[in-house]
Amino acid sequence: MKKTLTIFLISAIIGGFVGFLAASISLSIDIPSKFTGLSTAANIFIIICTYLLAVSFHELGHAYSFSRNGINMRAVLIIFFLFIKEKGRWQIRFRPNNVTALGGIAVPDLEPVRNESELIKMQSGYAKALIAGPIASVILWCIVTLSSILIILNTSNVTLSSVLFTVIISLTFITLFFLVTSLIKNEIVIGDFPAYKLAKKNRFFVAMQVYQYALFSSKHEQVTNENSHFLRNFLINGLQEKLGKQDTHIYTIALVDNFITEYFSGRLNELPQVVWDYADFLWRNPEELSKLKKSEVALSIYFHLLRLMYTKEDSKEKALELYMNLKEEVKPKTPMRKYLFKQTDHAFGIADNSDFLLNKENICISPAHGIWKNFEGYYVDEMEINKSLVHSTEKIV
Question: On the CB side of 296, how many CA atoms lie within 13 Å of its CA?
Answer without folding.
Answer: 18
